[in-house]
Design a protein that fits this description.
There is one protein chain. With 423 residues, the protein is of the alpha+beta class. The protein has a single domain, classed as Cytochrome P450 (Cytochrome p450). It is 49% helix and 12% strand. A six-stranded mixed beta sheet has the order 1-2-3-9-6-4. A three-stranded antiparallel beta sheet has the order 5-13-10. A hairpin with a 2-residue loop joins strand 7 and strand 8. Helix 12 packs across helix 17. The longest helix has 22 residues.
Length: 423
């Protein structure tokens, strides 16, 4: 059993949060190289923090050792979301997970499919307009409308005023999520005004959610979640707030943008064609996109009992950050880890997929994973069947990783309808 390498420094003066948030990949890679290990420690958010960048370490964290940890983002985000399955633990987490499972199991996908197909056609049928489009913004607008439509039954054509209000409120709410409450007393984070405005936005969002629940029609998602078995109305409202928050469309936009970039240009024409005719190959492309460019950099836990993660001791009272970006590049599991190779999933793909932590893992794996996969595959299939595309060279395609991963540039993309291509 080894102690984690690295230096946690002293309170406040030894904190490395600014360096980490400025460029987390550089921060992590620099220390992994310096310490010659993918598990190390530093001081982040004024707390000794162990960083986990191995598949085995993450598997230990979310698997056999999960009972030794509590959710690490609750102190930042609970005030903006309230009680929900993300923050629940033990029997409470199991109860909420069971309730949510009935809403998102494969047999429930019919609740979403019609709206999904209609919105795909609405947002992507006219991409071949002779001008480049910002891929990230296009996908974000689509995913935002989709979340409002399926979770609140709000669409611009029938509820334009409510839709615009929701859009503004989730943006304000999001800005609070990526700020830190003043009570943490980290002076370089600045004023808490963004957080306070986010709390106000949360209150207004909950008012809209209550109104939509009162107007729910039998057969739609609002009706089903009301009847799913939550203990009270507040639980229903808080989970709907989670589902419509900006986290959701930004995550979809991140993955779809990375997919667009990964298969862009004339040199990827064969891969696009194969993905359009071979569903299994498309699955492997999407797994490889999520491996290399997960929408969120990682997750955070707080250690309430000392334990061992991949041979390294993690002491009680420390924070643990599992680094999805780094774990997905663990050379012990993925050969040529920096290369985009969908074919790596051809053998033992199902087992390898279990090692990805793009959407959490273990008992805390995202309950909506079936819906996520369905949406991603439907959108990508539509794009592959209808378009060829390329990305302009004169833009910055370097990735930013916080708060959501995507190229720094707008990823201006030229889509050409397959029906309009020259022979």
């Amino acid at each position: 059993m080894a102690e984690p390498k690295g230096y946690v420094g002293y309170m406040i003066v030894g904190d490395k949060s600014v360096e980490f948030y400025r460029d987390p990949v550089m921060f992590v890679n620099k220390r992994m190289e310096e310490y010659d290990t993918r598990i190390f420690q530093s001081r982040i958010l004024n707390k000794p923090t162990v960083f986990i960048g191995t598949i085995q370490g993450v598997q230990d964290l979310v698997g056999d050792c999960s009972h030794n940890f509590e959710m690490g983002y609750k102190v930042f985000m609970h005030g903006l979301y309230g009680d929900n399955a993300v923050f629940a633990e033990g029997e409470e987490a199991a109860r909420l997970g069971q309730v949510l499972h009935s809403l998102f199991e494969p047999a429930s996908m019919h609740l979403f499919n019609t709206k999904l197909k209609n919105l795909i056609s609405k947002h992507f049928s006219n991409l071949d307009a002779g001008t480049e489009v910002s891929a990230y913004e296009q996908f974000k607008h689509f995913a935002t409308e989709l979340s409002f439509s399926i979770f609140l039954d709000v669409v611009p054509s029938h509820s334009a005023e409510v839709y615009d209000q929701l859009s503004q409120l989730i943006t304000t709410h999001w800005h609070g999520i990526i700020s830190v409450p003043l009570s943490l007393k980290l002076p370089y984070w600045g004023s808490s005004s963004g957080y306070n405005r986010a709390l106000e936005a949360k209150g207004e969002l909950l008012e809209i959610i209550r109104d939509r629940l009162e107007k729910a029609n039998k057969g739609d998602f609002l009706h089903h979640i009301s009847e799913a078995g939550f203990q009270n109305q507040s639980e229903v409202e808080n989970h709907l707030l989670l589902f419509i928050s900006a986290l959701v469309p930004k995550a979809f936009a991140s993955i779809l943008t990375s997919f667009t970039l990964a298969l862009s240009g004339h040199d990827k024409a064969k891969q696009r064609h194969q993905a359009s005719i071979d569903c299994k190959y498309l699955d492997h492309v999407l797994l490889e996109v999520q491996r290399l460019w997960p929408p969120f950099f990682g997750g955070r836990r707080l250690t309430r009992k000392s334990c061992v993660l991949d041979g390294v001791k993690v002491h009680k009272g420390t924070a643990v950050v599992y680094m999805t970006n780094s774990a997905h590049r663990d050379p012990k599991v993925f050969t040529d880890p920096e290369e985009f190779k969908p074919e790596r999933w051809d053998e033992n793909g199902d087992e390898l997929e279990k090692l990805l932590c793009c959407f959490g893992g273990g008992k805390r794996k995202c309950i909506g994973i079936h819906l996520i996969k369905n949406i991603l595959k439907e959108v990508c299939t539509y794009l592959l069947n209808n378009y060829e595309w390329s990305v302009s060279d004169d833009q910055d395609l370097t990735y930013k990783w916080l708060p959501v991963s995507r190229p720094i540039g707008q990823l201006m993309t030229q889509f050409v309808s397959k029906g309009n291509q020259n022979d």
